[in-house]
Design brief:
By secondary structure, the chain is an alpha/beta fold. The chain has 18 helices and 14 strands. The site of uridine-5'-diphosphate-glucuronic acid has 20 residues, from helix 10.
Length: 437
């Protein structure tokens, strides 16, 4: 099959590269000429494990190419995916669909023969219909269907997620469009990946409902963590105890500093706006959004308490990105916690394995080249993101470098007993604080 992927952001680039790996011919299109030039030169604009290899192999095989010229890519394509950004509109939290409709118009002008236009971007319910209307108004003669095919990739494991998804969701009632989508995803059927065919509206809502549910799960366990700390329970035991119930499930029950990233914060807000608009307000999602905002401040206060006041203290912060294996800083908890600590008089020496370049633009702190440089001479260390390299710090060396053996671990990556034995005061989330023996 021939695919045009409009938008080479996170979703577009990963999906385009992975479709080409399935054996399809994919042209990735973006308006940003410098990005396309970089991609042509083999440079990947985002950090995503394994993506560079998939891109290189498929470019070499002649199945993957990049262009700024939408008009040359669309006529050839059996399926044109729209994977442009849908950021939160400033002020009201609605998804901004300007890029989406801009792309739809340009695609309309270039359509030749039967084509399925597929929305991969996260878009509010009803957008598929509007895209169809837009294309129809520009090209009443065109032979096309508009389908919805939301993406469930996680940053940091996107390639694996694309190759082994839990399910594929396709929103279309057109049998012709369904056949094209079936053919595109055929390599996955061999692994017996469930494919859910549904209406466009259901498919659009599945994406928001999925992210909102996961965000709810995270904030639920975070609230349980607060209770655990006050009653002497251990949140990891509670998570395991409830997670083994198949109806609840083990995943997304890690307590921490709240959710961040380019999806959960934006999508929960957009869902709230949709719910209000259709007069079906969702008290649960509203509470989740509020709880997440509060959580980041509460975590800064927790650090303050652990340090006996951060004023005048030097703090080593390990991890700044919203999660490991990405350089993405969007809505990272660090963007609230670190400025709070600074405003309250702390001197921050931070290290992030991949986020430094982005973080330097956003956080005015001392950015260190490695963890031990950040730790050297600090009054204590705070772990904000669970990068693997922080899971096995040399605790003897770390203790020598720190002025005080204090660790605040907001990701629960160490065992309290181990830390006490190693001579640390160790403060974590939803578990008792331990002190050196
Ligand atoms: C999320 C979804 O997991 C993907 O399925 C979806 O495709 C994607 O959004 C999207 O809509 O594009 P992502 O934002 O990459 O993926 O990251 P997650 O791994 O879901 O983590 C989101 C946030 O929740 C992070 O800040 C993470 O630290 C936090 N989290 C996650 C927890 O605090 N606890 C957990 O147990 C899990």
């Amino acid at each position: 099959m021939r695919v045009a992927m409009i938008g080479t952001g996170y979703v577009g680039l990963v999906s385009g590269a992975c479709f080409s790996e399935f054996g399809h011919h994919v042209v990735c299109v973006d308006k940003d000429a410098s990005k396309i030039e970089a991609l042509k030169a083999g440079k990947i604009p985002i950090f995503e494990p394994g993506l560079d290899e998939v891109v290189a192999a498929n470019v070499k095989a002649g199945r993957l190419s990049f262009t700024t010229d939408l008009k040359s890519a669309v006529p050839e394509a059996d399926a044109v995916f729209i994977a442009v950004g849908t950021p939160s509109r400033r002020g009201d939290g609605h998804a901004d669909l300007a890029y989406m409709f801009g792309a739809a118009k340009e695609i309309a002008e270039a359509l030749v023969g039967y084509t399925v236009v597929v929305n991969k971007s996260t878009v509010p319910v009803g957008t598929g219909q509007k895209v169809e209307d837009t294309i129809r108004s520009v090209r009443p003669d065109a032979d096309f269907d508009v389908a919805s095919n939301p993406e469930f990739l996680r940053e940091g494991s996107a390639i694996e997620d694309f190759r082994h998804p839990d399910r594929i969701v396709c929103g279309t009632t057109s049998e012709r469009a369904a056949n094209v989508l079936r053919e595109l995803y055929r390599p996955l059927f061999l692994n017996e990946t469930p494919i859910v065919f549904t209406s466009r509206e259901s498919s659009e809502l599945i994406k928001y409902a999925g992210n909102a549910f996961l965000a709810t799960k995270i904030m639920f366990i975070n609230e349980m963590a607060d209770i655990c700390e006050r009653v002497g329970a251990n949140v990891q035991d509670v998570a395991r105890g409830i997670g083994l119930d198949g109806r609840i499930g083990k995943k997304f029950l890690n307590a921490g500093p709240g959710y961040g990233g380019s999806c959960f914060p934006k999508d929960t807000l957009a869902l709230l706006r949709t719910a209000e608009e259709v007069n079906a307000p969702t008290a649960i999602v509203a509470a989740v959004v509020q709880a997440n905002d509060r959580r980041k401040i509460a975590m800064a206060e927790k650090i303050d308490a652990a340090f006996g006041g951060v004023k005048g203290k030097r703090i080593a912060v390990l991890g700044l990105t919203f999660k490991p294996n990405t350089d993405d800083m969007r809505d990272a908890p660090s963007l609230v916690i670190v400025p709070w600590l600074k405003e309250h008089g702390a001197d921050i020496h931070a290290y992030d394995p991949e986020g430094k370049k982005e973080a330097e633009k956003l956080l005015d702190v001392t950015h260190c080249p490695d963890a031990y440089t950040a730790l050297n001479g600090a009054d204590g260390v705070v772990i904000l993101t669970e990068w693997n390299e922080f899971r096995a710090l040399d605790l003897v060396k770390t203790k020598k470098l720190l002025k005080r053996p204090l660790m605040v671990d907001l990701r629960n990556i160490y065992r309290p007993q181990l830390m006490a034995d190693a001579g640390y005061t160790y403060v974590s989330v939803g578990r008792a604080t331990v002190k050196p023996k």
